[in-house]
Design goal:
mainly alpha, 7 helices, Ferritin
């Protein structure tokens, strides 16, 4: 992350700025929606990587399902739970509800996450969520090392 450190920090700061300007969250609460969206972004990236691999090796004899992804250490994501699907939502869609539904869908398909993921995105303004999605989409997923750990440390350092 050394080369991308400033760019990523700037993007995370932009996410916090968006929340500061357009939500009623306290600075100590900014991390929760940001972490939720980064989680979906990261899970979608991992899912997509394995999906391309599995589809490339598929013989078509049996349907690929959640167990195939989970066997490779990746969360299974139904279409509505994919970050890429959230980015494609039409203007005027209830983005907060769509993100909440995405979190529920992840929990449904991955029982170990039941009642763990945040589901209060509908309390944030739609335009704020659209901007957050754009900011999260701009964070590269090929970061060396523990990207989540680095992001977590960043938010603890800046907002705790």
């Amino acid at each position: 992350m050394a080369g991308n450190n400033n760019q990523i920090e700037n993007r995370l700061w932009a996410a916090a700025d968006e929340l500061r300007a357009n939500s009623k969250l306290k600075s100590s609460e900014y991390a929760v929606p940001v972490f939720g969206l980064i989680f979906l972004r990261h899970a979608d990236h991992k899912f997509g990587t394995i999906q391309r691999e599995i589809e490339g090796k598929s013989t078509g004899r049996r349907q690929i399902g959640p167990a195939d992804y989970q066997a490779r250490g990746v969360l299974y994501l139904p279409e509505e739970a994919r970050f890429s699907s959230l980015l494609k939502l039409p203007e005027g869609a209830n983005i907060g509800q769509a993100i909440n539904d995405a979190m529920r869908a992840v929990e449904t398909e991955n029982r170990d996450l039941k009642d763990v993921l945040p589901k209060y995105f509908n309390r944030l303004e739609g335009a704020t969520l659209v901007e957050l999605l754009k900011v999260m989409a701009s964070i590269p997923m090929d970061i060396e090392g523990d990207a989540f750990g680095k992001i977590y440390e960043y938010f603890l350092g800046k907002f705790a």
